[in-house]
Design goal:
The chain has 8 helices and 8 strands, in the order αβαβααβααβαβαβββ. It is of the alpha/beta class. β4, α7 and β5 (122-123) form a beta-alpha-beta unit. The site of zinc ion has 8 residues, from loops.
């Protein structure tokens, strides 16, 4: 769950996540008060990460936006110039948030832009935050020595050191 979502807020607000918001794994989609667009769910089912979610996806509350709210969003996206950057799934996310007065969870700039045009609240999910948090480690493939600081050659056996990302705890 993004840090900006307080526990009080998450109990009263309906969140509408886009596909990548769910796939970041930063959102606990099962405990969040959310409505997931049917098209988002379909994208997750098709994706390679689907095995992580397949077991529980059916418990999520889903919705399909009305034709009318999709048209409102499409018109707003046309006038802001974002229409060519939005997928039909993106439009569904905005349309459902419009219908339920929900808060969109997305890092997509065009999606956020159209949301603000329609006075829909949104929260980024911190994909960029995740990138910043990557720590690197240097490993020797020959003898297995690990160093946190950058070294070109292994001080033990002289082999070239290789950089690996280390998951931040
Ligand atoms: Zn070595």
């Amino acid at each position: 769950m993004p840090e900006e979502i307080s526990s009080k807020e998450s109990s009263t607000t309906i969140f509408v996540p886009d596909t990548s918001a769910i796939l970041t794994g930063k959102i606990d989609i099962y405990s969040l008060n959310s409505i997931v667009p049917e098209s988002v769910l379909n994208e997750i089912r098709k994706g390679k990460e689907s095995r992580i979610y397949n077991d529980g996806l059916h418990i999520l509350k889903t919705a399909t936006p009305t034709h009318q709210s999709v048209e409102i969003v499409r018109e707003a996206a046309k006038s802001s110039g974002d229409i060519s950057f939005l997928s039909s799934t993106d439009i569904d996310v905005i349309a459902i948030a419009l219908e339920v007065k929900g808060v969109i969870l997305s890092d997509d700039y065009s999606l956020q832009n159209v949301a603000s045009k329609l006075n829909i609240a949104f929260k980024p999910c911190g994909l960029k935050g995740i990138e910043k948090q990557i720590k690197w480690e240097f490993r020797c493939k020959a003898c297995g020595l690990r160093r946190r600081e950058r070294v070109e050659f292994c001080p033990v056996c002289g082999h070239v050191m290789t950089r690996y990302p280390v998951q931040k705890q």
